[in-house]
Structures are given as structure tokens and as C-alpha cells.
TrEMBL record:
Residues 1-64 are annotated as: Disordered. CDD domains: CBS_like. It comes from Anopheles christyi. This is Cystathionine beta-synthase. It is found in: Cytoplasm; Nucleus. Homotetramer. GO terms for cellular component: cytoplasm; nucleus. One of its GO terms (molecular function) is metal ion binding. Pfam families: CBS (PF00571), PALP (PF00291). Residues 41-52 have a biased composition (Polar residues).
Amino acid sequence: MASTNTHRGCPMNGHLTASKKPQTVPEEDPMANFIRPDQPSRCTWSLGTTETSPHHHEPLAPKPSTLPSILEAVGGTPLVKLNKIPQSLGLKCNVYVKCEFLNPGGSVKDRIGVRMVLEAERKGLLKPGCTIIEPTSGNTGIGLAMAAAARGYRCLIVMPEKMSNEKVDTLKALGAEVIRTPTEAAFDSPEGLIAVSQRLQRSIPDSVILDQYRNAGNPLAHYDGTGAEIVEQLGGRVDMVVIGTGTGGTMTGIGRRIKESCPTCQVIAADPEGSILAEPEELNRTEVSFYEVEGVGYDFLPTVLDRSVVDQWYKFNDRVALPLARRLIRDEGLLCGGSSGGNLYVALEAAKTLKEGQNCVVILPDNIRNYLTKFVSDNWMEARYFKESENCHNQKWWNAKVQTLPMETLITMRDDALISDAIETMKHSNRTHLPVLDATGAIKGVVHMPNLLSKLLNRLVQPTDLVRRAIFKQYVKIDHEENIGRASRILEKDSFVLVTRQEAATERPVGVLTQRALFDFVAEQASIVTNGNGTAE
């Protein structure tokens, strides 16, 4: 492990975990060598300090007309004024967005991916033949994979199953290897992305975890880059900046840099419901345990997060963030991701206190590419109740109940059964999906044939493993009282929906509605309304 000293622009001791030869961890104690990502910071930075930074800093410089590689294209993103959304809500101030989605890899995380790689090379910790390993929600992985492709390193990314398939495909296109971990696994769980990354690093020679949760290069990239650019672009007239919080490196780097140049600027932090990063602690109290917005929020406080630079925290949820992200796309022409909607929602609330002529800057972290099959899709939004389903073609059956449709006879699996049992059940019953229940009868997910096939092909599971290791969770549930119209919108894209019934405090499965069953129903209805001449009535 290598470390650097603390400095003005960084909240922590920068750490890299490197392996020279394979090491093994006893099976009975998979967490024996776990390096926590939430260790207290030892940084000495404070506003107004005269301490000299011991770190390597990169001053802003204009980009040349030609670039030696794609890595030099990172940064220097434009600041764009919003012209419709703030005005429609009566805001008096100027609202600008920092278009981080225009970085070459598509997100603000390109900055830290490139910075961490170059810093590791400068210190001699990354050399030809090394492997970069990183736990990430995807965007940092893409930035690192882009840097690895340009510099010639092998790259291995560990990310939760919740993250979009577009991120996985982008990573693979860049040459990275991808390992998925359970979304619900806690940060300090043996099955979580951080522990899995560390076990891989101990087993792969000449491998390095750059560790965005503790690496000095994370906030440094934003102290030297993003924050300095904002100050320069507005000539030092920054009255408010709104930043989403994930690892906290963006918040820390931008917040510190702007506080030094614009001491009266309000630094506003946006945190999703279900995350525990906000202060005071009361803000984090919620029943939300899962949220769709990606790349923000955590269940621990990363070392690089300096909450002292934040003037006020705001919470947001999927229901406000995702429609507002779509509005940024539709009304302002900004092809950004879901967390941009969360940041803008917070900005529109916080900026109500600003006056005419004052400037509010909102960070738009990533682009639309990662979410084409998620919030960009009308079907996906309707399936999750973020958008109303409309009977555009006046289908007479639209409002009939789902429970009136023919469904497959319910066959379920226990989560403590063997995968081999699930395979046999699927073969003998000719099913491609089996709802999975725990010992209490609560729904845990689905064994879905395409997902199980992928896990078997990539040796992520074995037939002798328990079913709980092969559970597919990216599926849609609907209540048996829902209308067929909404189910039809979901089944235009998905191969099945799980129909459920609420019994007391427990959700129970009723059956599985498939595309085939809906097709047969719709085809029959269409023939009913067709007259003898073959034309619809």
C-alpha cells in the first residue's frame, strides 16, 4: 500500500492497494484483510489555511487544437444557461449547468479516472503489465477503462447489479472485464463490491485498486479542474453551487476550490432518499431502501467526503429526479442522466433565495447513453409509476383487471434450494422464470433463464450453489388489481411481469403474466372487433 501526505485540496491520505504476488484469504474469514472505505480523514485542510500543499497540482490551461490522446480531452466542459425550466418556476437568478456529461467517457467521473491513473503512474505504482481493479457504480469504471485502454492496462470493474446494462456494454467495449455484485449487499459485506474487489486484488499479481473512496486524486481532480473552471467561467461570481454526492470527491474538490475563491458562495449538497450522507441525521430517516437513480448516495461515509464544506443538504427521490431529467432533455436539449434531475430539483428549491443577477451552478454528472433502456424509456417509467399509462389507441380492454388474464400456474422456489433444483423445475415445467420466496413466503426475486444462463456461462454460479445466488431482481411486479393496459405497456419490452397480492404486511405472488399470454389475449380481442371484411370496426 502506498500513501501520500494530506494537502489543501484533498480530504484524506491518498491510498492505493497494490499486489505483487497472489495472496489467499482463508475461506472461513473472507473479511480478514478488508480495508474500510469509511476511515476517518486525516486531512489538515481548512478554509483560509496557509499550509503549502505537498501534492502535485494541475493548473488550468487552454486545450491545444490537436490532442495526443483522448485523455487530454477530459475536462474543460461548458457552462450552459438554462432558459426554460427556471423561468417557468419564477426563479429570478441565473441558473447555469456544468455539462460534465460532455466529457469523452460521458461523465464527471472521467476526471477522477484519468487523474488517479496518471497520479499512480507518476508515483511508479502503475507500470506496464499492471491490472487496474475498481469497485464502482459504473461511471468511474468507464473513466478508468478509457484511461486503461489509452495507456495499455488490463481493467477489471466490480459493480452492483442495479446499474444499467448500457454501462456494462460500454465497459466491455472499452476492453474491461465486469463482475456484478448484489445491489442489496452492504458496503462491508463479503458479497459487496468493495470486498469482492479487494479479494480479486489479493489474488491477481501486479494489480492495483485505485480506490476512489480514499484516493487523493478524486477530490484533487475537482479542486484543480471542475471547481477552478466554474470560478473562471463566471469570473468569480458564483453565488451557489449544487452538487450531487456519491463518493463525495466531487463535492469536496469543487466545494473547497469555490469556497477559497468565493467565500460567500453557498455549497448545496443533493442526496437521494435512502442514502445516509446528509446532515443533520434526521434528513436521512426514511422508509426508502432502494432507489433507481444511479451513481449517488451511499450507506457509509466515504473517506474523501468532507461535509464541512456543505452549507445545506437537500434530499430528493426518484419521483422528482427522473421526470425532471427527462424535462432537461426535452425542454433544454441537454442529453443528461437521472442524477442530473435530482441535482436540478435541489437547485430549483435552494435557488429560490437568490436574487436577480446572482448565479447558481448545477452539476450535470453523466449523459443519456447509460439509461436508454431505463428512465429514457416511456415503458420503463410507466412500469415504475413514474409516468401515467395512456390508452392512446382506445383499447376496450385497457381498464380490465390483470387477474382476469390467463396466467401460468404458480410454481415457486425457496431461496435456500439448490440451483440444480431450479434448473430441473424449469426443464420439467417448461418455464423460463420461477418466483423465489424465503422461508416466510416473502418474495425475494425471480430465477430468470437468460440471467441464470449468463451466470452459468461466466462461472458466477454453479448448480450446487443456493438459489439465492442466482436471483434476478431487475423485473417488474404489478398488483392483481392493476389494469391490463399498464401490464401491456410493460410487456412491450419485458418478457414477463410478476403479479402479486398484498396480504396483511406481506406481498405474495399470484402468478406470472408472460408476453405470450398477453399476445394471445390481444390477438383474440383484435379478432373479435374485426368485421367480415377484415377491417376493424
